[in-house]
Amino acid sequence: MPTSQKPTARLVWMTAEGLQEKLLRADDVVTIGRGENNIIIINSPKISRNHARIEWGGEHFLVRDLGSSNGTFVNGQRVENMPFALKDGDDLMLERLSFKFEAAAIARKMQDAFGMETVPAEKSSTDNQKAYLEVVSGPDIGMVYPVSGESVTMGRTSKKAIWELCLNDGTVSRPHATVEKRGSSYYLVDLGSVNGTTINGLFVIEPILLNDGDKIGLGESRLVFHLPKTQA
């Protein structure tokens, strides 16, 4: 089969450097893990050294878990001993890191899964168009979440959670705090949390303006707020 006709797809995911993209072709074997031998390297202690592998299986791209400690999930279903066939739009989850699988052969534009511009996985983005929160300490270290829309509410993980950013931290309230966009600025608002919300070590009493690099404390978790590159 000519190379140009081989089935192709892509993975889209977000890191602290911005949204990333990895194109998949039929002759590719893409490994994901913490180790430097992987094609996609995820620098998080919750990702195994060799975590998962994606390859062409003849009719579908298949994802295999490589005996990871915290598991590989597709649309919430754990990938066990057998490979799992991926279809367009599937959500691939490795611990708290979410990938979107897109089949490139479908007749539509290669739109970003998160509504943002993507960059090749081999390069870092220098043109991130949205603000985002990066968890730098606590149970969810390594997680990155874009601040989309008018606000992002943060709180403890719960089956009944209706907030956007869920943290696996028992010292975080349900819900805890919100980042609100007001015009071109962003504000941090505490929602009456039990243990309080801090910014750069000071408790938030009333809505406070966020600057690029500000450190947010929710319970035992610490997050860093990043402005879009055009505003930083």
Short description:
The protein has about 230 residues and is an all-beta fold. The chain has strands at about 10-15, 20-25, 30-35, 40, 50-55, 60-65, 70-75, 75-80, 85, 90-95, 95-105, 120, 130-135, 145, 150-155, 165, 175-180, 185-190, 195-200, 200-205, 210, 215-220, 220-225.
Structure commentary:
With about 230 residues, the chain is mainly beta. About 0% of the residues lie in helices and about 45% in strands. The chain contains no helices and 23 strands. The protein has a 7-stranded mixed beta sheet, with no helix packed on it. A 6-stranded antiparallel beta sheet has the order 14-13-23-22-19-20, with no helix packed on it. A hairpin with a 2-residue loop joins strand 22 (about 215-220) and strand 23 (about 220-225).
List the helices and strands and how they pair.
Blueprint: E1 8-15, E2 18-25, E3 29-33, E4 40-41, E5 52-56, E6 61-65, E7 72-74, E8 77-78, E9 84-86, E10 91-94, E11 97-103, E12 119-120, E13 132-137, E14 144-146, E15 151-156, E16 165-167, E17 177-182, E18 185-190, E19 197-199, E20 202-203, E21 208-209, E22 215-218, E23 221-226
Parallel strand pairs: 2-12, 3-4, 15-16
Antiparallel strand pairs: 1-2, 1-11, 3-5, 5-6, 6-9, 7-8, 7-10, 10-11, 13-14, 13-23, 15-17, 17-18, 18-21, 19-20, 19-22, 22-23
The largest sheet, given as strand count, sense and whether it forms a barrel, is:
7 strands, mixed
> How many beta strands in the DSSP annotation?
23
Rg (CA only) = 19 Å
H and E order: EEEEEEEEEEEEEEEEEEEEEEE
Report the CATH topology name of the largest domain. Answer: Tumour Suppressor Smad4
| Spatial arrangement of strands, main beta sheet | 8-7-10-11-1-2-12
Helix content: under 10%
Distance linking N and C termini: 48 Å
Give the overall average pLDDT: 82
Number of domains: 2
- Structural class determined from secondary elements: mainly beta
What are the segments in which pLDDT stays under 50 over at least 5 consecutive residues? 1-7, 105-127
Q: What is the CATH first-level class name of the largest domain?
A: Mainly Beta
Under the CATH scheme, the architecture of the largest domain is Sandwich
Figure out the total of helices: 0
Q: What is the overall shape?
A: elongated
In what range is the share of β-strand residues? Answer: 35-45%
